[in-house]
Backbone:
């Protein structure tokens, strides 16, 4: 089985920072693309940032210049450094990892959500 363990959420004041972590564990061959999504109450889940196996990154416009996605392949972990947080960033954050389970199979896996709250 494959499991993603997410940590780092919490409550911070506007302008503050948080760092989210998502670590893949279990039986698999390798991790591929990794990404972060978020979902606010009453809204659709949206892509926040993504990073490829080679380290190329992509960010949603609403977080450019404030958030940084990175990965540590030795630890099978993806991070999201969130700076200059705004009330609008309040949401449940999820990580998604494309994983090669073995030589023949690859799937997308979702971690548990972690709450990020920024009071207005």
Residues:
């Amino acid at each position: 089985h494959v499991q993603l363990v997410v940590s780092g959420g919490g409550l911070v004041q506007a302008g503050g920072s948080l760092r989210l972590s998502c670590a893949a564990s279990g039986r698999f061959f390798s991790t591929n693309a990794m990404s972060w999504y978020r979902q606010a109450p009453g809204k659709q889940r949206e892509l926040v940032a993504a990073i490829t196996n080679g380290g190329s990154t992509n960010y949603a416009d609403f977080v450019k210049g404030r958030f940084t996605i990175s990965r540590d392949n030795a630890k099978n972990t993806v991070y999201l450094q969130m700076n200059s947080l705004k009330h609008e960033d309040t949401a449940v954050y999820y990580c998604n990892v494309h994983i090669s389970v073995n030589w023949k199979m690859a799937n997308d896996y979702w971690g548990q959500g972690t709450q990020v709250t920024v009071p207005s």
